[in-house]
Design goal:
single chain; 1 helix; mainly alpha
């Protein structure tokens, strides 16, 4: 038994935009956590995602 799923370009573009936005928000949060950790524990930096401006 299979299920067919159809997505048009608009749907895919919207999903991609949402994923990029959430990834940027996560990176910002991780940067903030990293700064707090460095301040308190001198921890190792978190690797950065490549920037695609």
């Amino acid at each position: 038994m299979s299920t067919n799923v159809t997505l048009d370009v608009t749907d895919l573009t919207s999903l991609l935009h949402q994923a990029i936005t959430q990834a940027k928000q996560l990176q910002t949060t991780m940067n903030q956590v990293n700064e707090l950790m460095k301040g308190q524990f001198g921890g190792a930096p978190i690797p950065q995602l490549p920037s695609r401006s």
